[in-house]
Amino acid sequence: MNDSAHSLNNSVLGSDALSISKLFNVKGWVIIVTGGGTGLGLCTASALAANGAKVYITGRRLEPLEKAVSEASPKAKEGGGQMIPIQADASTKEGVQKMREVIESKEKWINVLINNHGVSLGHADPNAVEQTPEALSKEMFENESFENWLDGYRINTASYYFTSFAFLPLLAAAKTVGGYAEPGNILNLGSVSGITKTSQKGQFSYNANKAATISLSHQLATEFARRNLNIRVNVICPGYFPSGMNTMQGEYAGGSDESLTYARSKWGIPFGRAGNAVDYAQAIFSLITNQYMTGAELVIDGGWLLEMG
């Protein structure tokens, strides 16, 4: 450690910079959460708004966005933040363009872009047939389609590329116009499905496009760093959280001995429960406020990946 770094650390240790309120402070930040009207997107947007951020949530349908804003507004107002809905389909170039035009008309910079929108499409089940080459071939060939594969990749991966570059100028402007020490940053929604070596009962397409999302995030982080843009890019990889993308929402609450056993046997989660809003929000705040972290993938899965591989 050189003298200047040592001096800087002493300065920090003697200040209030290490207090919780400063470590994860997002007051006054301008943040975009795509797919922010439901599920993990709503959890993310609500937590940020409740802690003083101005959060734009986007989605294809206006009704769930308005419902989300209505339900979250009292807590957001109490924390000094707000949530603003924008109806736009982030999975199309036209939708991304609309998002950018609306936000450019209202903001001079953004601090964080959270690419959260995504889809899990139906898939063939290799466990539903006789385990012979002929039966597996028939099931996995005839009951899958190129359209499903391409739609999943378009929504879960390619659209993240377009939103990232569309908002690059506003992210860069956060440093100079916003008065913050660093430019904005990007957080992409990956999944343990993009890391695991198993197909999770046949969801080859989803797992493959989430792996592509993780790769895209690493590439963006690398290219931005090499160009001295100082715009960080990280990816969060959740395991099982109740959402509209899995059946856990209705059949598992967690907490009792029975539900612990159920979570372990049905979902393979060593910790014996699904993730919750607090778990997820803690991870989000850590990733977006740590100005020395880029190109990272954060797994938050209750040990599922360790158990299932």
From TrEMBL:
Keywords: NADP, Oxidoreductase. One of its GO terms (molecular function) is oxidoreductase activity. InterPro entries: NAD(P)-bd_dom_sf, SDR_fam, Sec_Metab_Biosynth_SDR. It comes from the Eukaryota. Belongs to the short-chain dehydrogenases/reductases (SDR) family. This is Short-chain dehydrogenase. It comes from Kwoniella dejecticola CBS 10117. The lineage of its organism: Eukaryota, Fungi, Dikarya, Basidiomycota, Agaricomycotina.
